[in-house]
Specification:
The chain has 189 residues and is α+β, with helices and mostly antiparallel strands. 25% of the residues lie in helices and 32% in strands. It has a four-stranded mixed beta sheet with strand order 6-3-8-7, with helices on both faces.
Length: 189
């Protein structure tokens, strides 16, 4: 579901907008170094020009407190085929971080009815000519997952110890790894 579909129409009736032809066509808010909206552009242009935008990272735990870990599909626009310990993605134009976190978690996990993810912290990720404001969340997903095949090539739930053991062995998305390191450092305090 696109952010426009999640938001509904302004007339109060259910929306049925035509989704973008491809993810590269999705419109995103552009932000400045203080996370203030300064414009809008298609996702493909945002990525090509390295423009600042917004993303959400949701750490999903199952009923046994294990973390959902997955490998991204090879067709992803950013970091294809890499492993990630978060579900999430870009915040659409006009969409709130909180709405994007719930939308992305439900889409990627393939579930409906998740509780609202709990916001933990925000940070500005910058790496390899790219940058985005990132808000990190956590959510409990006690129901069976059915990951979105267009987003997730492989998945499993790992304990914190299992995940820690794989950090040096698997190739991880750099932004997710940065978020995870910040999260574990905060929890170690």
């Amino acid at each position: 579901m696109t952010p426009a579909q999640a938001a509904g129409s302004s007339s109060g009736s259910p929306a049925s907008p035509v989704p973008p032809a491809s993810p590269a066509d999705e419109i995103l808010d552009l932000v400045d170094a203080s996370d203030r909206v300064i414009g809008r552009a298609p996702r493909g242009e945002v990525y090509a020009k390295g423009l600042l935008h917004r993303c959400v990272f949701v750490l999903a735990r199952d009923a046994d407190d294990r973390i959902f870990v997955h490998r991204r599909t090879p067709v992803k626009l950013v970091f294809p085929s890499l492993y990630d310990m978060f579900v999430g993605g870009v915040v659409g134009a006009g969409e709130s971080y909180d709405a994007a976190a719930l939308r992305e978690a439900e889409e990627e996990l393939g579930v409906c009815g998740l509780p609202a993810p709990t916001p933990l912290f925000s940070f500005l990720y910058q790496g390899s000519g790219q940058g985005w404001w990132s808000r990190v969340y956590e959510v409990r997903c006690a129901m069976p997952v059915h990951p979105q095949e267009s987003e997730v090539a492989w998945h499993d739930f790992l304990t914190d110890e299992q995940l820690a053991h794989r950090l040096g062995a698997w190739e991880w998305v750099p932004d997710g790894l940065a978020a995870y390191r910040r999260l574990t450092a905060r929890r170690a305090r």
